[in-house]
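Write out the 3D structure for:
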Amino acid sequence: MKKPDFISAREAADLVRDGQTVCTIGMTLISACESILKELEKKYLEEGHPRELTLFHSCGQAAMKTEGGIQRFAHEGMLRRIIGGHWGQSDRIMDLIAGNKIEAFNMPQGQMANLYHAMAMREPGKLSKVGIGTYMDPRIEGGKMNEKTKSCGYDAIGLVTVDGEEYLQYKTIPIDVLLIRGTWADENGNISTAHEAMVLEVLPAVMAAKRFGGKVICQVEKIVAHGSISPKDVTVPGALIDYIVVSEHPEEEHRQTYSWYYDPSYSGQSRSPMQAAKPMPLNIRKVIGRRAAMELERDHTVNVGTGIPNDSIGSVLAEEGLQDAVNLTIESGVYGGVPAETIDFGISMNAEALIPHDRQFELYNGTGIDFTFMGAGEMDQYGNVNSTKMGPKAPGAGGFIDITSSAKNVIFCSTFTGGGLKVSFSEKDGIRIEKEGIFKKLVKEVQQISYNGKIAYERGQNMLYVTERAVFRLTEKGPMLIEIAKGADLEKDILAQMEFRPLITDNLREIDTAIYRDGVFGLKAYMEGK
């Protein structure tokens, strides 16, 4: 029986050669192979090798401005090219991209997660309509995130016609080294991911790497006796693993997520009392989340994206006692529970189910979900939305393009202006703008098309753009202002803070001031009234 070799983290780093393509599986810092990544960075800083690497990954894998994750690759010379879904929490990677120091190809996260299947099956990449009309489209930008990439002579995304219909071709990326993580390995190398807070796309990535003859290296917390892991609980059979690294410092380098070492309520070993989930304080994010949640209907399947939606929608539902009224999902494969916030995006306390990341996107891209709540950077006069490039910073799409392409209702959540905005609220008087933001988010033309308003309208989507002082609905002719906050002046606080004049409904309503209330605000009544 073939068994993997048990090696140190430094020996794993020594297996990576100059110019190779390294694939990592994780999301934020969940399931990060930190022991191996740390040694890989250390070797480069000491020896100048490995260099000129291509980094391939579907999800963002960092935690704001901290060390760890793909930040370990963020050295000019070490990294030549990155092909990934998201870098929004990796400031050093974004600096390399903005400075034209590396080539950067962005693909939709869900397309990448399922690209492993196509690669494993020797198919010519992943064909999909997801991304047509956005910056992924080769006729627009082709997912190329800086000038260096646009002039490099390589295309990661193509355009093909099948049976008279156009598709984007997300091209195959041969893998030389794959880094995955498990909780335990038995003596034969069988891998369990029991304490991981996500299932991710570990097995498909292993299959893809093996198809190209790549090395599969797995970091685990400990070794257990053969037979200790139930066959049904084996995520990857030992026969498919080449090397295993046992983390020597698991409390620092094998954490369940950035903010804590291990909490069984996030990986399904136990449940925490719901009172452990504290209500959000009344702030601008909560107010926006409350107004957005008023669109919900019972028993619908819902996705929440990173930013305001992830930080507010689940918390608002829990506070209102409605966490079971809808089927709340996260792109990582989570169903139910209360999502963790900000830096720990993608996991949920007391989840109902955890399914593979790639399988989740089959639902999102195929059937499409009832509601998605997404963050937004800016919207233009055509209803196009940019959530992927702000000035020189290019965080990438993540699951944004996949999910918004097929959802029946798309609710964008954003502050009206950005950069220093300060507001206060009261149920009696509504909103008070104490300090206006320094830059406008309602612009003539977005910097990058992450969401194509014209195509969205043609596919029959219901799209709303929700802010703390105004709500817009997408129409055939562009965004229409349908609600305004009490206390906000239409000319001074709305129209003067936009670069275009929107359509305005003849029946302009006032946003219900109940969303400014401390404590429960009555979401149940709105849902029952639909």
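The chain has a mean pLDDT of 95.
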